[in-house]
Design brief:
Blueprint lengths: L5 E7 L2 E2 L15 E7 L3 E11 L5 E12 L2 H6 L4 H17 L4 H6 L1 H16 L4 E15 L23 H16 L7 E6 L8 E5 L2 H10 L3 H7 L1 E8 L5 E8 L6
Antiparallel strand pairs: 1-2, 1-3, 4-5, 5-6, 7-8, 7-9, 9-10
């Protein structure tokens, strides 16, 4: 009797048969060899291990991983010890992926990095009949601070206040066109508000007098596929006209080259 959450893989005279179950399954004694496979979602954790990041810092990073078997036959015939192979593969992918990121990226984009890590693990475990459903990164203590000469420019000049609540890549984009707008005299009475949708800090809002056309032109001049890949976010522009009308514009820098 096979329960609903299990399947039985039968080897008959050395040949694998299609998975059997659930319900009553007949196996031939002395001829069939069989193995049970649990299809329920299971989980394991990767203990925090030291990772040397791209900017020279050392951080303890672990992960909680949920997985399930979607092909019972492949899970039996592909690897001898499925659990040990999955753990080793997940740990290797974790250390390799985190070494390409900076300390700031790991701390601020933990959810997104967990999704990317799950896709990387699935590429290696899918031929085994196993699929990772969820990966949640767990951050430990910072063992070594990143090298100052390799860190990205995250310090905001005092002349541009209000950027403290934005992430690093969005800070640099905001500083690029806000610095040009601050050097010229405002020609219009409208005010443009720059908002980071990824930040919940109310201080992450910039208001500077300028025109919408000049602002979008400044942004368009520096758009590239590499920048879009690095930012990976959407921008919201709120325009308040002199008559009190509120207009919203969105700039999607989450995919493509924004052409």
């Amino acid at each position: 009797m096979v329960p609903n959450y299990q399947r039985i893989v039968v080897f008959r005279l050395g040949r694998v048969c299609p998975p059997k179950g659930p319900g009553v399954v007949l196996v031939l004694p002395l001829i069939d060899q069989w193995q049970k496979v649990d299809l329920r979602t299971r989980a394991f954790n990767i203990p925090p291990c030291q990772v040397t990041t791209r900017d020279g810092g050392v951080l303890l990073v672990g992960a909680d991983i949920q997985f399930r078997i979607w092909n019972p036959v492949m899970s039996v015939v592909s690897v001898q010890d499925l659990n040990a192979s999955t753990r080793m593969t997940a740990q290797n992918v974790l250390t390799h992926s985190m070494s390409k990121k900076t300390i700031r990226e790991i701390q601020t984009e933990r959810v997104k990095l967990g999704e990317y890590l799950g896709m990387d693990i699935n590429e290696m475990t899918r031929p085994w009949g196993l699929e990772v459903d969820r990966v949640e990164l767990t951050l430990g203590s910072l063992i070594k601070s990143p090298d100052e000469d390799q860190m990205a420019p995250l310090i905001v000049p005092p002349s541009v206040p209000g950027l403290e609540g934005l992430t690093g890549s969005i800070q640099q984009l905001a500083m690029h066109f806000l610095s040009h707008g601050a050097s010229s005299q405002p020609q219009h009475r409208d005010s443009i508000t720059f908002t980071d949708e990824l930040s919940s800090d109310p201080e992450g809002i910039i208001t500077t007098p300028s025109s919408l056309e000049d602002l979008l032109s400044s942004v368009q001049m520096i758009l590239s596929e590499d920048l879009v890949h690095k930012v990976g976010a959407c921008f919201q522009f709120e325009v308040s006209s002199a008559d009190g009308q509120q207009l919203k514009y969105y700039l999607d820098l989450s995919q493509g080259d924004c052409s």
